[in-house]
């Protein structure tokens, strides 16, 4: 099995947030723990959603402290930052694999999509750029089941 195929498998490791921080050489702080837990509670949440959740857990925390923690946790690959065009950044607790996302054009809801296995020509660069490609990030856009049902009900 190639390296890229291995990366397509979701990570099943469920580690204590404090232990994750220590494994990545980070000090364990209440703010970092709260941000990690908030991202886990709100997969694909925006920084504002994460900040609101953190405040609900530990009380007062500045928006900048949340942004700093999100940036550090992203840098250390403890969370993943997704930047859909024309939308605020989203933060994903699922790391360690090369999964993709589908985003609803109406409500903005994002969900994970496991990466394509087998022949996936759109994941192969067409031109030889000299790069060694180790990951592809794909965003699918569409309409979620909830918005489709809402639109169907409105039409009736």
Short description, anyone?
This protein is α+β, with helices and mostly antiparallel strands and 156 residues long.
Description:
With 156 residues, the chain is of the alpha+beta class. The chain folds into 2 domains: 14-96, Arc Repressor Mutant, subunit A (Orthogonal Bundle), CATH 1.10.10.10; 97-156, Dna Ligase, domain 1, CATH 3.30.1490. Helix content is 38%, strand content 12%. It has helices at 3-7, 17-23, 30-41, 47-58, 63-75, 145-155; strands at 80-82, 90-92, 100-104, 110-113, 139-142. Strands 4-3-5 form a 3-stranded mixed β-sheet, with no helix packed on it. It is flat, with a radius of gyration of 18 Å.
Which terms would index this structure?
Dna Ligase, domain 1; 156 residues; disordered N terminus; 6 helices; alpha+beta; three-stranded mixed sheet; 5 strands; two-stranded antiparallel ribbon; Arc Repressor Mutant, subunit A; 2 domains
CATH class of the largest domain: Mainly Alpha
Q: How many discrete structural domains?
A: 2
Low-confidence stretches: 1-6, 9-13
Shape: flat
Biggest pleated-sheet summary: 3 strands, mixed
Percentage of β-strand residues: 5-15%
The total strand number stands at 5
Give the full name of the CATH homologous superfamily of the largest domain: Winged helix-like DNA-binding domain superfamily/Winged helix DNA-binding domain
* CATH architecture descriptor name of the largest domain: Orthogonal Bundle
**Helix-strand string:** HHHHHEEEEEH
**Radius of gyration from the alpha-carbon trace, in angstroms:** 18 Å
The chain-level structural class is: alpha+beta
Major sheet: arrangement of strands? 4-3-5
Mean pLDDT: 85
Q: What gap, in angstroms, lies between the N and C termini?
A: 50 Å
- CATH topology of the largest domain, what is it called? Arc Repressor Mutant, subunit A
